[in-house]
Automatic annotation (TrEMBL):
Residues 14-114 form the Transposase IS701-like DDE domain. This is Transposase. Pfam families: DDE_5 (PF13546). InterPro entries: IS701-like_DDE_dom.
Amino acid sequence: MAIRPETPRGFWDDFAPVFTRPTFRRFLTLVGSAILTVGRRTVANLLRTAGSLASGAFSSRRRVFSQARRSPLRLAEALARRVVDLLPADAEVVLVGVDAVFPHRGKHVFGEARHRDPLRSSHAFTARRYGHKRVVLAVLVRFPFAARP
């Protein structure tokens, strides 16, 4: 019985289950062109950089971020796992979180509510804003050549 060697795991293998197959291909095209794009990284500039690699309608590429079926939480989890896997085994993993209110106004904005704005509030004054409350969690990485993480 021959033992088959394990196929090497690619960097993007963790991200494939997050998307449907066509959306994943579009996502990879946009990520690759984001690395190569100079200047503002708008979707139009990314598609301009991708050139013939982004075949098909431009609108299908734009929908990757707005309407495509995907799980943002699973995408963030896959990215965090890949970042932690790249760290040395004895490295300390430091997580930093912040919550902020992003203003969105209008009659048809889904999930809009009135929130306490932590950036504008103090102990004596509470500032409130209409919009979406978002929590951002980041992994701080310490590089040997840098003084700060």
